[in-house]
């Protein structure tokens, strides 16, 4: 049931770690493509399943724009992921922990091929070589994700740290990933996202802490600014 990756990422701009309906609606109205809901219990942006379901329901009732709802999971079981996909419901599953490569295939077999599966890789070196190594193992396991999200490595933390990657190295190494879409995360803010896109050459970005007043509490003006700067930079790519 494996599906080969597309050359295009599933979204251009994603705001992650949303916990409040007002913030979700503001993100949707600003033009975001995807919203991330963090289901990792130790995260500062954790949202319980029932609260997430209510947030999605109320947000969709208040805004006619359609976005992709993304569930962020860290070392969760296939059963837990499947329950969240069904009950929220989710369009995208993002594996952000230490899951083995075959987990992508197992999730896809359980939730169906219409739900896209992303794999986050926390990069610790100034190179995408470790991402390429992961993808080679995933190919052999018939378990390629729909896209890879790269984030800065932080000990005992799974994203949302505000740490940045080396954007020049990302651009240099893009070719080694072949047709696999790449999503850039890690320390992106309204002030630097334009430079990050121009320098790295990516077509998709993801932010959480960069548009916040506090963990899980988004600043609406920062979200609008992040969206406008991202769109401007993508347009200049041609």
Total strand count, please? 10
Q: CATH fold name, please? A: TIM Barrel
What's the CATH class label?
Alpha Beta
CATH-defined superfamily: Aldolase class I
From the spread of the alpha carbons, the general shape counts as: globular
Calculate the terminal CA-CA distance, rounded to whole Å. 34 Å
Q: Tell me which CATH architecture applies here.
A: Alpha-Beta Barrel
> How big a fraction of the residues is strand?
15-25%
How many domains?
A: 1
Strand adjacency order, main sheet? 7-6-5-4-3-2-1-8
List segments where confidence is low: pLDDT < 50 over at least 5 consecutive residues. none
**Strand-pairing-aware structural class:** alpha/beta
Name the average pLDDT. 92
- Taken in chain order, the helices and strands follow as EHEHEHEHEHEHEHEEEH
Rounded to the nearest angstrom, the radius of gyration is: 16 Å
Count of individual helical segments: 8
Largest sheet: 8 strands, parallel
Oligomeric state: single chain
Percent of residues in helices: 25-40%
